[in-house]
Each structure stands twice: as structure tokens, then as C-alpha cells.
Design goal:
- By secondary structure, the protein is an alpha/beta fold.
- About 40% of the residues lie in helices and about 20% in strands.
- The chain has 15 helices and 17 strands.
- It has a 7-stranded mixed sheet with strand order 1-2-3-4-5-6-7, with helices on one face. Strands 11, 12, 13, 14, 15, 16 and 17 form a 7-stranded parallel sheet that branches. The protein has a 3-stranded antiparallel sheet with strand order 8-9-10.
- Helix 7 packs parallel to helix 14 and helix 13 packs across helix 14.
- The longest helix is centred in the N-terminal third of the chain and has 50 residues.
- The chain starts with a helix and ends in a 5-residue tail after the last helix.
- The structure holds zinc ion.
- The site of zinc ion has 5 residues, from strand 11.
Length: about 475
């Protein structure tokens, strides 16, 4: 009986045991397999980070719609780097940017290997600046600083001009309407600007300068539009010694406006007064600011920027001898809506000269100005205000003196500029200043702020003359 019962239980237990073993084996199998899989994943993940030299990628939104900034940072012992670059919604554009970044990252350790000092630590930094232009354009300026453990950092610049609406990168050729004449004009502006840059003066390598400013499209592809000017970038050591840094040429957009394709042009104010003051209105307050003896590459440009800030118009009485050197500054003065006057060729006392020579001073300057700005000077101011009835009768344009002398040439004090104007202020005044003194450019902002708060409108000399009878 007992044996029988045992025998009866036997197959039941066997069956249960087999079931248990099968279950256990499958559980073990699942665990082992998934462990293997886990291990495999872990290996491939660590392989990935090794090949990227333990770099850290992160992307964040920028202040500009549609633009993100990717940062790629590595703390590698010998070749650490930190690079930042833009990412847009255009994959094609992103790839172009990434090509540049990848190449910079690849070249860097290769260059480091050439360093004889095997313990030297390098450094690669690429910084990004973004400048919006009009509705949907962006200039991306990537400044690369490369240090290979030697004596010097090398600074170079890469730029992208991007249409955020179409996702396209725009090159200088498109910007200048694919027109070789426009390229030639631009090249001349850039060359002249570099040659006249006083900070570069002693550092320039003239042969290289001539080479990089030849009218070739590829010479001008490093550009950005920033506020109201276009910047062209040159690398450190490219055209000047290291002391000069990486030179940048800044040209006013108003200067190159005629060269630009219409999509990129800025709205220009014309010489005509857009809002004429009501004639005979005794309450209208006007003032004509005048600047003599220029143009000057630095001071005149600073004055133009300050005038722009207050939407003020002024008159510049130029010397022919200086227009000959700085025709592009004269063009800029005109392009920004100011009046240009003739101030003789080289500033003599006209009343002590024979009439023939007086007229030569006038005519040679008139011709030089016309050559530079493509139109004639509209008014004349004799140097030192020295004139007489004979001279006034012979000069074919109005001869204009002044009613307030700021004595800026004498005191050279930016704060006294406003003091002298306040002291002598009257309606329909013509104010004498000089755009060759830094102190005048520096003091002008305060003058404009004060006069504007007093309700004055800034007009040109020709606009104020009818009110000065
Ligand atoms: Zn003068």
C-alpha cells in the first residue's frame, strides 16, 4: 500500500521538479542574457566617449528666434578646447558650420604633435557672436583663438551670413549683386581703410595688404553686418605684425549702399529736408552745426555716428587737400544726409591773395569734392572767415560765416564745447566747430543732448540761411 502510494506520488513530483528546473533555467538565461546585453551597451558607450576625447556637448537656446548655440567642451590634458557654434533650423547650413568646427578640432591635436615640447598644453577656443540684421538675417562671427603651447595665441575669424527665412548662407558675391564693378569699389574701400588705419600704420605688411585687398570674391568672405556698418575681418599676422592684433575694417552701410543687392540695402535719408520747418514760424527753433577743416578718418566718422544718434543734420566745410586723401569719408558725410561745403584747398588767408589765386583755391576744391561725391559743394566758407565784397561777388555759391564760435581749436576741451554754445545760444545760430579735433567729437554728444532737450531742430546751413536775414 505504502509502496503503491509512493509509486503514485513519484511521477507527480518528477513532473513538478522538471517544471521547476525549466523555470529556473529560463530565469537564469534571461538574467545572464540581459546582463550580457547590459555589458555590451556599457562597453559601446564608453568606447564612444573615448573617441570623442571626453568632450561634453550641450545646446541651449539663444536670444534670437530659431538660433541655438551648441557648446563642445573638452578637458583633455594636452588639448583642451571649448568651442561654441550656431545651430539653425536648416540642416544644410548646420552641416557647413559643423564642417568648419570639426576641421578646427581635428587640426588642433595634429598641430600640437608638431610641438617639440611633449608636455606643452594647448588651448583652442572658438567664441560665437550673433548679430541680427533687418528682419531675418544673422551674422555669425566665430573667433578662433589657438594656442599651441608656444609663445603666441593666434586669432582668426570665420563668419557666416545667414538668411533665417530660407535657411541659406549668403556670400559676399550675392551681397554685391554678383557685380565685378561693385567688388572693385569695395576692394578699394577696404584697402584704403587699412592703409589709413593709424593703429596699423607701422605694423602693416604692404605686400600682403595689397594681396588680400585685390578685387577677388574670396578675399571678402569674412564679413558681418553689425548695426549700421559692415565689418571685414583679417587674421592675426595675415597683413600686420602680431602687435596689431586681428585687424577689422568697418565701413558704413551708407557708404556701400549703392553696391548692395536691394534686399540688403538700408533706407537712406536724402539731402532734401524731409520735414521742412514752417516758414516764418517765430517759435520754430533751429540751429546749424558746422564742422570745418576735415574730413578726418577717425574724428569725422565719430561725429557722423553721434549726429546719427540724434537724427541731426549738419554741414561739413572741407579742405580740397584732405578730400583728395579721404574721398570715402566725404562720400560717407553725403550719404548720411549732411551738407558739404568748400573751405579752400589748403586754408590760406584769401584776403591776402590775388583774386586769381583765390579762385584757384575755390575751383580746385570744388573739383576735388565733385570728384569724390559726384556732386558739387553747395556753400563756401573762407578760412578764418577772412573775406571781402570782391571775393563774395566772385564765388558762385553762398559764402557762409558763423554766429557762435566754440573756440574748439583753441581749448581742445570736450566739456567747454557745450559751455561756449550755451553762453552764446540764439535762434537760427550757425555754430563753428572743427572735425579734426578729438575733443570736439567727444564733446558733441552732450551738445546735441542739450540742444535737443531745448527743442532745437538741427538743420544744414542752406536750410537755415533763409531765416538769417
Ligand atoms: Zn578752417
Amino acid at each position: 500500500m505504502i509502496q503503491e502510494r509512493r509509486k503514485k506520488r513519484g511521477p507527480m513530483i518528477d513532473f513538478l521538479l522538471i517544471g521547476l528546473i525549466v523555470t529556473l533555467i529560463s530565469i537564469i538565461l534571461v538574467i545572464v542574457l540581459s546582463k550580457d546585453h547590459f555589458k555590451f551597451q556599457k562597453i559601446s558607450a564608453s568606447k564612444d566617449t573615448n573617441s570623442e576625447a571626453t568632450s561634453n556637448l550641450s545646446t541651449e537656446n539663444s536670444a534670437f528666434p530659431g538660433i541655438r548655440i551648441t557648446s563642445d567642451v573638452s578637458k583633455d590634458k594636452r588639448t583642451p578646447f571649448a568651442v561654441h557654434y550656431p545651430q539653425t533650423e536648416s540642416e544644410v547650413f548646420n552641416d557647413v558650420v559643423l564642417q568648419y568646427i570639426t576641421k578646427a578640432k581635428e587640426d588642433y591635436p595634429l598641430s600640437m604633435k608638431k610641438n617639440k615640447d611633449k608636455k606643452a598644453t594647448g588651448e583652442l577656443t572658438i567664441n560665437l557672436e550673433t548679430f541680427p540684421y533687418q528682419d531675418h538675417y544673422y551674422s555669425f562671427v566665430l573667433t578662433k583663438m589657438l594656442y599651441l603651447g608656444g609663445a603666441n595665441h593666434v586669432v582668426s575669424t570665420k563668419t557666416f551670413f545667414f538668411n533665417n527665412e530660407t535657411g541659406e548662407a549668403i556670400n559676399i558675391q550675392t551681397l554685391l549683386q554678383n557685380d565685378n564693378n561693385n567688388l572693385t569699389t569695395l576692394a578699394a574701400y577696404v584697402r584704403k581703410d587699412l592703409q589709413q588705419n593709424l593703429e596699423l600704420k607701422d605694423q602693416l605688411n604692404n605686400d600682403e595688404l595689397l594681396k588680400v585687398t585685390e578685387p577677388k570674391w574670396e578675399n571678402f568672405n569674412r564679413f558681418a553686418i553689425i548695426d549700421d556698418s559692415i565689418h571685414f575681418y583679417f587674421d592675426e599676422y595675415e597683413i600686420a605684425s602680431g602687435a596689431a592684433g586681428a585687424p577689422i575694417v568697418k565701413l558704413a552701410l551708407s557708404l556701400i549702399n549703392p553696391l548692395l543687392a536691394s534686399d540688403f540695402q538700408i533706407a537712406m535719408e536724402t539731402m532734401e529736408p524731409t520735414k521742412p520747418v514752417s516758414p516764418g514760424d517765430p517759435n520754430a527753433k533751429r540751429i546749424a552745426l558746422t564742422f570745418d577743416d576735415g574730413p578726418h578718418p577717425k574724428v569725422t566718422e565719430q561725429i557722423l555716428n553721434t549726429l546719427d544718434k540724434y537724427h541731426a543734420k549738419a554741414t561739413f566745410f572741407m579742405l580740397g587737400s584732405r578730400v583728395k586723401h579721404y574721398p570715402n569719408i566725404a562720400r560717407d558725410v553725403l550719404a548720411r544726409g549732411h551738407e558739404i561745403g568748400n573751405h579752400s584747398w589748403n586754408h590760406p588767408v584769401l584776403t591776402k591773395m590775388p583774386m586769381e589765386q583765390v579762385l584757384k583755391e575755390y575751383t580746385s576744391t570744388a573739383n576735388e569734392i565733385e570728384l569724390a561725391i559726384n556732386q558739387g559743394a553747395t556753400v563756401f566758407r573762407p578760412p578764418y572767415g577772412a573775406t571781402n565784397d570782391d571775393i563774395n561777388a566772385k564765388i558762385p555759391v553762398p559764402v557762409v560765416l558763423w554766429s557762435i564760435d566754440t573756440l574748439d581749436w583753441k581749448h581742445r576741451n570736450s566739456q567747454l564745447l557745450l559751455t561756449y554754445i550755451k553762453k552764446n545760444m540764439h535762434n537760427n545760430a550757425i555754430v563753428l566747430m572743427h572735425d579734426i579735433h578729438q575733443s570736439t567729437a567727444d564733446g558733441l554728444d552732450a551738445v546735441l543732448a542739450y540742444l535737443q532737450s531745448e527743442g532745437y531742430e538741427f538743420v544744414t546751413v542752406s536750410e537755415i540761411l533763409p531765416y538769417r536775414e
